[in-house]
Amino acid sequence: MKxxxxxxxxxxxxxxxxxxxxxxxxxxxYWQSSRALDDQVKQYMEQMVDSANYQTDSYLQxxxxxxxxxxxxxxxxxxxxxKPDDAYEYYVYSDKIKKFSESSVQSVVTLYKQLNMxxxxxxxxxxxxxxxxxxxxxxxxxxxxxxxxxxKIAGDGKxxxxxxxxxxxxxxxxxxxxxxxxxxxxxxENRGVVAIEIKLAELAKTWDRVSLGKEGFFFIVDDTGNxxxxxxxxxxxxxxxxxxxxxxxxxQTFLHKYNGEERMFVSRKSGYSDWNLVASMPVEELRRPxxxxxxxxxxxxxxxxxxxxWLAYRFGRSIIAPIRGLKDSMRETEKGNWxxxxxxxxxxxxxxxxxxxxLMVTRLSDMIKRVYEAELEQQKNQLxxxxxxxxxxxxxxxxxxxxxxPHFLYNTLETINCYAIVQDSSEITEMVEAMAFMLRYxxxxxxxxxxxxxxxxxxxxYMIVLQHRTxxxxxxxxxxxxSLLLEKMVRLxxxxxxxxxxxxxxxxxxxPHHFIRIDARKEGGLFQVFIEDNGTGIQPGRLxxxxxxxxxxxxxxxxxxxxxxxxxIGLMNVHRRIQMVFxxxxxxxIESEWGRGTRLTMTMPETVRPRLRG
Length: 614
Hints:
Blueprint: H1 6-71, H2 74-79, H3 87-107, H4 111-114, E1 115-122, E2 127-131, E3 134-135, H5 144-153, E4 160-162, E5 174-182, E6 190-199, H6 200-207, E7 217-221, E8 227-229, H7 241-249, E9 253-258, E10 261-269, E11 276-282, H8 283-334, H9 349-362, H10 364-402, H11 406-422, H12 426-442, E12 450-451, H13 452-470, E13 477-478, E14 488-489, H14 494-504, E15 516-523, E16 526-533, H15 540-552, H16 570-582, E17 587-593, E18 597-605
Parallel strand pairs: 13-15
Antiparallel strand pairs: 1-2, 1-6, 2-3, 4-5, 5-6, 7-8, 7-11, 9-10, 10-11, 12-14, 15-16, 16-18, 17-18
Helix pairs in contact: 1-8, 11-12, 12-13
């Protein structure tokens, strides 16, 4: 098996990376650019067709207003009822319609250029023709078959656009807008037709603005398959293959081979005229920019590949030579010959590797000695760190026990002083005794666990002092079963939570409907004490902040949390105090709903009592 060299592997990997990079970048770039160009051209064509469609509808809607004016004109409706042989009535109504035509056309300046003629045809065979600004002096009688065709095609009271003209000379150059008209009695029977012929030459100026390149073109097909524009398309048969595809596509883009060339057709159907405006461009012309990008990408990729391979070859040789020298020296080191390699003045990573090898050889014995010394030093540091941590926990615990709110003491002493001055009452004795019990209970610094009964007694003394201070009586509902009063818990954890409730849960004062309930239970090896109130609760943002601080398992500093100020050692310190005694698996948890109250839960291990032998 042929041995692989490092230089060959480097060259091979470089070749794979370069080829894959060029192929992936080139393919993705070509595909993305081609797709983007196709979408851009398609979007451009759609915008051009939509613009032409909008302007065409605007032109036709202006003529619809003119048609509405004629079809609703009383003289036009009366003209439909004249007798075929009454020359006088024909003259009178023709003159009125003429004046109405002149005033209507002159009121809209744009109608002068596009309007070919207006004619009113009655079922009786008489007609009135107004050729733009000229009134035809003769009275042409339309062929009955042609009139019947108009009555058949024109909508019942709706506009119909027809590719026809009453004069053969105008056929193919105008579009007729026709509408049936009833008589003056507004009955159900249609009496004639009002038709307006619009010159396509003027309207086509809007369509000629659609720029589709050298090989692109624009055309219009009506809903029957007839070609409206341009005139050259009028030579095609109605509803041929191309027209059928346009009618079937609706507003979709499709590809079709036209005159032996693959082309893209973008069709938009007008909701007003039922015309299909279509723009077409050769696919080859659309793809020409993408082909240019593909050719450029291939040429640039090949040149880049050649340069990259040459650089990879030079780079591989510059790395392999010093590595081979280092490999030979390390073989000698394996044999026990600590061989020093002369540094050749290189400042790159390989020079650093040679320098590191020399240091390894010359300082190997020193390093072994330092490893042993470091190991001993680490063990010593760990022992000292454990002792320091224990001392810190003791100091934190004693500091927590000695913390008591100065404001509470000052306010209490001031209250006692007021009592002493104002009256000689047994209340002073009761308040001082409660205060003495609280102080004596608080300053004990041992780490012993006390019972629930002890904590409840401490809360009772706190309530005595609080009621004298505030002058309001308030009772706490203690629902703890008597069997749980001797369960173990941590000193000074219950009273701070009660104090916190009075300070924060009832900011506007204690009302008769307010309550504080203390309960406890044992379940699953755990002993839990619940303190619940129906105060203001905790806002969601503040609740999330408190829970985050509880998860950090650290003491709360007085300057960084509001619970310590005016609330004993605070929620954070109660949580940490429980963990110091029972471990990090236990502590304080908070449940609260803003505006409805808060529930605090202290979780501790269940007290295991020895069984008495009978």
